[in-house]
Amino acid sequence: MDFNNNPQLKLAYEFIENTGKSVFLTGRAGTGKTTFLRYIRNSSFKRSVVVAPTGVAAINAGGVTVHSFFQLPFGPILPNNAGTEQSQGQENRFLKLNKEKINIIRSLDLLIIDEVSMVRADMLDGIDKVLRRYRQRNTPFGGVQLLLIGDLQQLPPVVKEDEKDLLSPWYSTFFFFGSLALREMPYISIELKHIYRQTDQEFIGLLNKVRDNLLDNHVLGMLNQRYRPDVREMQNQGYITLTTHNQQAREINTRRLEEINKTKRHFTARIDGEFPESAYPTEQNLALKAGAQVMFVKNDPSPQKLFYNGKTGKIVGMDDDVIYVECPGDTDSIEVSRVTWENNRYALDPETKEIKENTIGSFTQFPLKLAWAITIHKSQGLTFEKAIIDANAAFAHGQVYVALSRCKTLEGLVLSTQISQHSIKNDYSIRDFTQNIEQNPPNEGVLNQARLQFQYDLLEDLFNFSPMRYRLNYLRKAVNENPGSLDEGLSPLLNETDRFLQKELMDIASKFMVEINKHVGRQKDIENNSQLQGRVSKACNYFLPRIEKGIETILHNLDLEVDNKQLKKTLSEAHQRLIAEIDVKKACMETCRHGFKTAEYLAARAKAAIEPDTKTAGKRVKAVSVTDTSQHPELMKELRVWRDKVAEQTNKPIFAILPKKSMITITNTLPATKKALQAIHGLGKIKVAQYGDDIISLVMDYCTNNDITPNYEIELQTESKPPKPLKQPTAEISLELFEQGKSVSEVAAERNLAVSTIEGHLATYVKTGRIPVNKLVESSKIETGMKYLKEIGSETTMSDVKNALGEEFSWAEVRIIFAHYQYTTQQTA
């Protein structure tokens, strides 16, 4: 794409390609917004998806509709905190996506929304909800970069009266920029200035005045010179009438076609697969006559480029497979054949993991429609040589500007009624928003800062192990809450893994980022900072083997076997999410072993975020357990395979065949008789009668193959309950939550304890030096409190200290400062 003479377009490209900043790209009709969309879609290294609010807009943009991609409900989408039954019910409706769609979302870099002027604020918040659910929950739009394209002075979003009542308490405006999520996310707005559609500078100036609601007597006078009372006579001269409603356009086209005294021919479209009627680019049953005025509804796909979307002409002949159209200014008639529009769906290439478009349906028809009249709505994006406009019709916001700007020249415009000040409807929220855009244009300095910040954010993400620890703690929580159902060695193993993650990864990464910041301070351009690149390479080579050996190997071999179906599902999901987080981290570090490059990093992160097939994932999880208390893990494995097969054949739950605890006892005692089997807890006479022969056969084969003597006699016993695992100290739980970045009040809320209780827990760790005192108390108060304690000595009581320090100190602050004083005293003793 040629960016010469168009600095705003070049700036927009640089922001999209080289930063993480979201962009609202606007501009008057004919400034190249659609051309830019196609260029980004076809040339950017970022993984992108294009969506639009309507079927026709989506087909024209080469994308899909917002509703189909995100599975949004039709009607208002209320905020989560709206507290209504409708808002709660919607959560269950539009967040159910299939696995492939989820993988596309997780691997997405850039979301392009075309015709954003027609996207309501609540719809954009619905998109935000879906992206947050499947990506980063605490980041607007899940951390996806947005490219919003549209002109707010054109067609507005549709909001019914009853919908206004529901949405008004939450939204100050229904335009997209009223989105609650968008307000949380800093984005830049770029207005394109160079107009390609019109070349007449005087006409461009008039259109800009209409667009910006700056009508004065001069502008009205110039436009009203195009008023023609004899407009009906001009309809035979190749003019197209722009109407406000479909019915008006349909009546004019039908009447004008019937006035032609020639044979009518019908051409039926061929529709294959899925192609919704709302997206039909022309009539399914096209009725035409020689002499009819028609408009092309698609660009010529042939190399000759004889026609474009919006070009008008007259039919001069028709065959079964060819229609001949004569256009003003052309020396020869155009032979028009049927063309095909495709309805695509996004999918993942199973080999490359790239986002691709699969054709799920098509619409084949002559790219023509009757064109004595067309609605304003359907004219958006088109260009006409001649147009008739009734400016006093019931136009909605922006429609007069859309209608006027369809014309290439002022001379091609005809008004059936004169324009007045009241003909133009404008929205004050749009005026304020667009004025802000004009007053705060981004420049090269803002771009450069955003580019460097984007590189830094990605590098910080590379060495951020907090998401991994979050996933690990979620698994630990599920294990610790069910001690009697799982292997007793599992909880200590996960606790040790957490300590390793903290000490060997997080603590080292924190120190490394201090070093990174020093390098960045000397040279901010990370990709061209050779010293920094060397440090990044060494760091990746340091962390990778520790992730693999210290965490991944253990997690891949956990024994999460449990009889309870719901608990098994919870553990499996928590485990898979943790493994997925590790896979993404490893892929990012692997690609940065030889240095950091933005494009390579994004590609590696995106592909690693795609979940593997469940079959592959299942095989990886079912490795030999490292926590199993079984003395013969191979026999345990064989028993599991046998049990699962029997459960499947009999359609019974696995615990009804052979509970896990009974399996462990079997592998540890190696019973060789049915009498010995009956001595095992969980195996009564009925189960032994049903499955005893199979179990004994497995035990005997294992013992024979491994030269082991089985047990022929085991005394009948009542298995004593295993000792309860040590309960994790309550203060330690509070510490872990606090070290995850939660505030004292958040920890208290999560644990359903009083804030003062949590403060007491944390004071314990201030006393040991684990928690720095300045994380809990202001520096000025620490200084005052410590000064008093050093003067009075440790023989005093906290009550005395509180009375001495006064009401500005809370009891919690006194307790924490006192604990810090005890810690410093111990260190200097």
Kindly describe this structure:
The chain is an alpha/beta fold and 829 residues long. It has five domains: 7-197, Rossmann fold (3-Layer(aba) Sandwich); 240-385, no CATH class; 445-609, no CATH class; 633-706, DNA polymerase, domain 1; 730-827, Arc Repressor Mutant, subunit A (Orthogonal Bundle). It is 49% helix and 12% strand. It has a six-stranded parallel beta sheet with strand order 3-2-4-5-1-6. Strands 14-13-12-11-17 form a five-stranded antiparallel beta sheet, with no helix packed on it. Helix 24 (633-650) crosses helix 26.
Which key terms come to mind for this protein?
single chain; 829 residues; alpha/beta; Rossmann fold; 5 domains; 6-stranded parallel sheet; 5-stranded antiparallel sheet
Give the helix/strand layout.
Blueprint: H1 7-18, E1 22-27, H2 33-43, E2 48-52, H3 55-61, E3 64-65, H4 66-70, H5 85-94, H6 99-106, E4 110-113, H7 121-134, E5 145-149, H8 161-167, H9 180-184, E6 187-192, H10 201-211, H11 217-224, H12 231-234, E7 240-243, H13 246-258, E8 265-268, E9 270-273, E10 285-288, E11 293-296, E12 312-318, E13 323-326, E14 334-336, E15 339-348, E16 355-365, E17 368-370, E18 373-375, H14 376-379, E19 387-390, H15 399-404, E20 413-417, H16 428-439, H17 444-462, H18 466-480, H19 490-522, H20 530-556, H21 565-591, H22 598-608, H23 614-621, H24 633-650, H25 654-657, H26 660-669, H27 674-678, H28 685-705, H29 730-739, H30 744-751, H31 755-767, H32 779-792, H33 798-805, H34 811-828
Parallel strand pairs: 1-5, 1-6, 2-3, 2-4, 4-5, 7-18, 7-19, 19-20
Antiparallel strand pairs: 8-10, 9-16, 11-12, 11-17, 12-13, 13-14, 15-16
Helix pairs in contact: 1-17, 18-19, 18-21, 19-20, 20-21, 21-22, 24-26, 24-28, 29-31, 30-31, 31-34, 32-34, 33-34
